[in-house]
Amino acid sequence: MRRTVKVLLLTSLVFNACTSARLSHDEARKKIAEIGRSNLVPDAIEIRRIVSQTDTEAIAEASVTLAFQFKRTKPDSEWQIAAVRLGDRDWISLDELLSAINEGRRKVTIEGLRKLADGIAKYRDRNGSIPDTRDIVSLTNVLHPAYINDLVREDAWGHPIDYQVSSGTAFKLISPGPDGRRGTADDIVLDSSQPAAP
After folding, report:
1. What pLDDT was estimated at residue 126?
2. 85 and 126: one domain?
3. Cβ density class 71-90: b for 16+ within 10 Å, e for less
4. Which of residues 146 and 50 earns the better pLDDT score?
5. Residue 132 · residue 165 · CB < 8 Å
6. Residues 11 and 85 in one domain
């Protein structure tokens, strides 16, 4: 069974080679249609409005029509989303889609942890020890804006990052990962006493 729904997307579009001074609805629609080489039908994309824009960044609010495939094990069981289709692409299983989303969020989270670690290192170099705080809000209050430019307090899933001081020079930054529970296999940990991962 297929159902088509409109999904409201808040899309940040950054263009380096945009020739016009302002992002137009047509340009935004064209760029969204090219996502992942999906070849979305332009009629499947409705640009609601350009929310904000500067010379180098714009945010467009858009509705994109996606197709969802539903399945159930027997006629009286509950319907479940089995797959999603974007544009003219093949069906993507829901597990595959969620895995790709989580991998992207994992990379964003690691980048955020590294920014925090760099800020802590700058603080340590200037002050001789790492910040003696016990939570992410206190830590970022000390680091921002003197030691870090971006205010990073949550992972890409919206969970607070945990900051643990091991000693005067060692610390851990921990994201609970997609499941939101600490101490599980999907936690993302940056431990300053361990060699940095590539």
Report:
1. 95
2. no
3. eeeeeeeeeeeebbbbbeee
4. 146
5. yes
6. yes
